[in-house]
Protein 1
Amino acid sequence: MIRNSSSSWSRGEDKLFERALVLFPDETPRRWEKIATQLPGKTWFDVKKHYDDLVYDVEEIDSGRVEPPSYGDDQFNSSWGSESGTSQVWFGSNKGKEKESSERKKGVPWTEEEHRLFLIGLQRYGKGDWRSISRNAVVSRTPTQVASHAQKYFLRLNSVKKDKKRPSIHDITSSAKSSMGNWTNEFMDPTATYDDPESPPSSDFHAFGFQM
DNA sequence: TATTGGGGTAGAG
DNA sequence: CTCTACCCCAATA
């Protein structure tokens, strides 16, 4: 039931979609149209559908305590930073009830699902409210986790963004080369262009006002 | 082996 | 609780 796009959304498309989502906040007038611009072969309707699906996913997880979709069936390894995927340690499948053996805290690598949820929550609640995000979007994660993840996330975004312009002593005011031209196929390319992660100035409406 | 990526934790606000 | 910085671990170059 969870995560099922109307059409086939590839990884690259998803990435572009997320990028566009963070690029065009909820306050954007023709948000879907603008987002669809970033997605070749997709219409605004498709995009909206996809977003709706994701939001539904989030709500489902929030409401029904539906644990994130089988992470174990990840045939295609997620590549959220490492090209080869294979993030960290998938020590013991902690599905169901976590087993606190004598295992150290170790790190549970965020999966795409969680990351997407995080992005959604990020847009819906804004940059700061990690508690709301962790409460509504990424239930599997505590505010601290979310904050840490967000830190790394934005850090990477900024790093990449800067890196793209780093060897540019020539691009003083930068020409059109920094727009779109370098990256042809950014699909499946983690080092591809992620720009402006800055969240909207609006602190966002807190539809729900529960504090922890 | 050195560097980066990635998550957790500690400390300060 | 949030923000920032640091530490530790694993993967990659």
Protein 2
Amino acid sequence: MKLSTRGRYALRAMIDLVQNQYNNLMPISLRDISKRQEISRQYLEQLFNKLKKADLVKSTRGAGGGYLLAKEANKINAGDIIRAVEGPIVLADCILTGRKIKKSTPKKCNKVEDCAIRVLLELITQKINQTLDTTSLQDLGRITQNIKKEQKDER
Amino acid sequence: MKLSTRGRYALRAMIDLVQNQYNNLMPISLRDISKRQEISRQYLEQLFNKLKKADLVKSTRGAGGGYLLAKEANKINAGDIIRAVEGPIVLADCILTGRKIKKSTPKKCNKVEDCAIRVLLELITQKINQTLDTTSLQDLGRITQNIKKEQKDER
DNA sequence: TAAATAATATAATTTTTCAGTAAAGTCAAA
DNA sequence: TTTGACTTTACTGAAAAATTATATTATTTA
């Protein structure tokens, strides 16, 4: 049970965007994010594709172009970001499809025991989404800011 | 973000154990569980190895042998079972190790942005464990029982 | 006590997913 | 018209997960 790097990288990139924006006026290029976050440009491209489709960022092309937040940082939450790049959070396939367990051997989930497990997993999924949806990008930005400050003060 | 089959199978096997026990007197063989749950015997062996080490089941060898619950079903919870076969629930490696992100390229998690993400993931992990630890095997057994009953009534 | 049963332990194999890379193309602004 | 940036698709290698295989040891029962 892990959050894949896709989700983590997307969060990181979005936090980077908030931190480096000047009132969301100057587009930020993937090249810059790539450098700061040490994530390959091509990989970022994949992620921002999805972030854009989910209306979380907007882009301007050409020289001096790049990405901007599509909404205010307090209107974007962690759940939006993660679901944009990873799809909906599903702890077991039968929850979404209702049935299938595997792709290769599309066996039905016909064990009643599974249904009890499904009840449990659905409950957990709810809790996860609840937490993700009550944490805004602004929150994440502030936390980051505070950590940076602390690190500075220590020196 | 998925619960692996290991965890799901272990839950299923344990529910099977509760459902088919006669006051926990007659050991249940993996062969029977394997048949009922359609999980290969060898795979079950791996799982029960860990369940035993975690003191959730006890075993007797030889003919007529098999597994029994090591404690009462209301003293065993879903979290015990899942953690027994999957290890602790960790949504990102840096949470456990404090630092490392990957094994192969042991790069440090030196981005402050990650720390904000860690705060979020730790919160979620707490919630997950909370839910898992408040759902007993007895609960799961009852839910299963109810579902079986409903299915019967429908006919 | 031999045969059958069932757990224990480890190793090997297969399958699937993930992470990252590459390439070729499109579009917009300076 | 050229640069810089976004778009899209395909591919590859590595790691993790799932499954299978092979012995071995311990009990019971006929």
Protein 3
Amino acid sequence: MIYNKKPAVIDRMILNSVQRDAILYDGGPQLVFAGAGTGKTRVLTAKIAHLIEKGYRPGQLFAATFTNKAAREMRTRIEGLIDISLDGLWIGTFHSLCARMLRLECRHIGYMPSFTIYDSDDQVSIVKKVLRELDIDDRSIPPRQALGAVSRCKNACITPEEFEKQAKGYYDQEILSVYKLYQKKLREQQGMDFDDLLCNTVYLLRQKPEILQRYQEIFKYILVDEYQDTNVAQFQLIKLLSKKHGRVFAVGDDDQSIYGWRGAQVENILSFEREFPDTKIFKLEQNYRSTTAVLNFANAAIAQNLNRAQKQLWTDRQGGEQVIVNRFRDDRQEAQCVAEKILSSMNGKIAGQDIAVLYRTNAQSRAFEEAFRRARIPYVLVGGIGFYERAEIKDCLAYLRLLVNPKDSVSFERIFNVPSRGLGDKAHESLALVAQNKQCSLLEALLTCDISSLGSRAQKGFSDLKTIFELLIDLEKKGEKPHEILLQVLQLTGYMDMLTADDSEEARGRVENINELVNAMVFWKNENPSKKLFDFLEEVTLISDVDSWNKKENAVNLMTLHCAKGLEFKHVYLVGLEDGILPSRQNTDDERKIEEECRLLYVGATRAMEKLECSHVDQRWRFGDLIPSSPSRFLNAIPENLYVFRDNSNYFGQTAQRNELPSKPVRALNSSATLRTPAAPAKQQQVQRNIPQYDDFSQDTVEFRMGQHIRHKVYGRGRILSISGFGEDMKLTVLFNDGSRKKLMAKFASIE
DNA sequence: AGTATCCCTGGCACA
DNA sequence: CAGGGATACT
Ligand SMILES: Nc1ncnc2c1ncn2[C@@H]1O[C@H](COP(=O)(O)OP(=O)(O)OP(=O)(O)O)[C@@H](O)[C@H]1O
């Protein structure tokens, strides 16, 4: 037996001495406080494995990671390290851990375990309703702003009662009433938003000492990754859970705190020692990820921030490729040139999946997607409009959510007339009235109340809907498999028929998506035979952008800087380093926010292992207008000897090659051009002669129709009223948004 | 009364 | 580029 005994985890992993110390230390609160790429995540993983190996049961560990994906990966790593089942281990994001606890305990705070978790769209629709009911003009307080204010309160664990005490002035009073009514509505429909998951857990533990005590005894260790991005509610939770034994193990880096706008507080990590007495701090100083070139650049970037803890950070990966800073004319050239650079790396020995293009906002991805498609570079886009945010998917989920929680009126309102059943505002209002009288939800009213007071058309619609729900609820009660229920939803409601009747490309895509949803549910059920429908619904609402990201064979990764946190790539392109983008326009007013933007640059730069290229452009397309843009103030503050500057703004691409490229867009264009207007090919020639090759693929496909929306370099947006002439002489009469009417030569007007 | 359609505006982080 | 509002159509 002795021969079979593996050496301890700690001896099987590559760890430096500080890492080892941190893992072995067992004397109370610990903070691993270190810069990027120093192996913090590795320590956390090893710590968990070590604790389990030492005899802690997985169920005694509470480990919070920043994304579900990180949790999954960590779990897999740990499973590979020790031969002990991890069943019962509490590992996940704070949100999913809290949801798990609340499913078990929410009865104590007036919720049913079948409560629904609302995503941000749901939140917005509730706030809109609240504003309407309170007669607040949504131009005086935009819903998103109201929501932001409410969310800030919740993230800071400020109850409406507490807010009332500190509320000053008219605006605060309005927010207070929104906050109160919003919470009332959530509660009425057994809904919790993302913030509630955290603050209701804290509330529960504070209100019910016996429950708190139970969990304090269950969890022997509280482990937290990315501690710098915890908010007040999360901090309170950690504090409450660890109070008895003080076994908190946190890792983080104040320089990587980038979620302040979501309530995270860097102060949490900076005052860790004060909050947790007798904390032992572990400092990791060796960066194992990046070359000196990359690291010096990143260090210089973050050194601009004054409000930070000094840290050492060095690497023995000497030298490496110089960091490059590129200047481009506009975002199209930026995308095009990055694509060319990537293409040549990929012809070398770098695989696409080891390359990432990182940008500040999702909107910036479009130019890169187009450039990559033209260059035939496979890519994966992380974020943007996710699968579970698509309208058809949300419709399906709304039906399912209602089966789990019939009080969920947000979902009811979403689907009661989808597909169309002849029910509109009036019908909704009547039903709401009935529901109000009976003190029940809309669906409950539909199912139990007499609705004969309604008009005949509405009655028909409602009775159809009622029948559908009766059948569905029956299926759910019988414990039918989730995907079977969904298939019935699609069948009974006629949702599928609605889509198949429509033979547009759009509708076909939706059918495909729904099929994918069915598949996902089948797959999920196989993986989790014992889980229920509401578990599925919970999981899908808590999915984040990175969670659904999988590196694809040879595909370049496109994502926001926020998404890139904790990841690493051999080559990294940081694009759009301009004032107004990074730092983002909205965050240039406040020093704290500017510092957070700077940290974003630091996070981005430190993702690179071997090669880092940055870029900024002179002009950028924004909502259809070309606006000037200047290099980021952060770049200006980095010593010039730490990078090579390349001005590409006069570079006009590999013109000759372009013509020979037998690419698909060209063919598509020829065929459509000849189909539509015989004059088009001539125009295409014209365009190719007049306009530099580098950025004008879309110009080639120019075709005009009456009524088409266009934008013009000088006049901005407008609509085509009439077309005369053809070929080079085609003239357009355009009505611009400022009311002016102009006649233009088609070949000079740039369209959107 | 309800629905389809056109037009206009507002606006990029994310669990 | 989508969600909301006015408008015209069934
Ligand atoms: N002791 C070590 N020896 C060699 N390589 C290591 C060691 N510890 C970690 N690494 C490697 O260094 C890289 C960074 O590690 P890790 O992701 O754990 O760092 P981190 O501190 O969490 O980074 P970040 O804060 O940027 O997310 C990884 O590729 C990891 O495999």
